[in-house]
């Protein structure tokens, strides 16, 4: 079983992961309204991935014999100035999540909770990918600049993204 401090911290992270899902869904709604269905698709897949993160933690808390306590999810932003601004927001958000995960690892080490430390290593690696995939789209948007045909091609590319849950482990 996790101690109370660790239990509370993982519960807070479950909220943060669900908020991430909500934020990306809101970005997906923005893109759908802007006539960029591929970007909207990318965000929907990202929202599913965030729910997967939340559920991975949900299952872990139960497995340890601790208690899940779900709390209100903050309302996400609904408008952005441009597609570029959205992806700048994604990267900035993922960098924030990385620091939250790192803080959780530090806490697990302080609390000498080795099982939770090992559990969190998956998220440490996942955050490297999360920042890289956001950074990749952001880079392409910067190259495209104000070129509508470039944005059209990128939108088609992002329309190919499908969320596949990683294999158990
Ligand atoms: Fe759950 Fe995008 O980090």
Describe the structure in your own words.
The protein is mainly alpha-helical. The chain has a single domain, classed as Ferritin (Up-down Bundle). Helices cover 75% and strands 0% of the residues. The chain is built from five helices and no strands. Helix 2 packs parallel to helix 5 and helix 3 runs antiparallel to helix 4. The two termini are 20 Å apart. The mean pLDDT is 97. The chain binds MU-OXO-diiron (FEO).
CATH classification, class level: Mainly Alpha
Q: Which residues sit in consecutive blocks of at least 5 with pLDDT less than 50?
A: none
Q: Rg, please?
A: 17 Å
What level of helicity do the residues show? over 70%
Strand content: under 5%
- Write down the domain tally: 1
What are the distinct ligands in this entry? MU-OXO-diiron
Cα separation of the termini: 20 Å
Write the H/E string, N to C. Answer: HHHHH
Mean pLDDT: 97
Helices, by number, come to 5
* CATH-defined architecture: Up-down Bundle
What composes the largest sheet? none
Given helix and strand content, the structural type is mainly alpha
Q: Using DSSP, what is the number of strands?
A: 0
Relevant CATH superfamily: Ferritin, core subunit, four-helix bundle
Shape: elongated
User: What name is given to the CATH topology?
Assistant: Ferritin
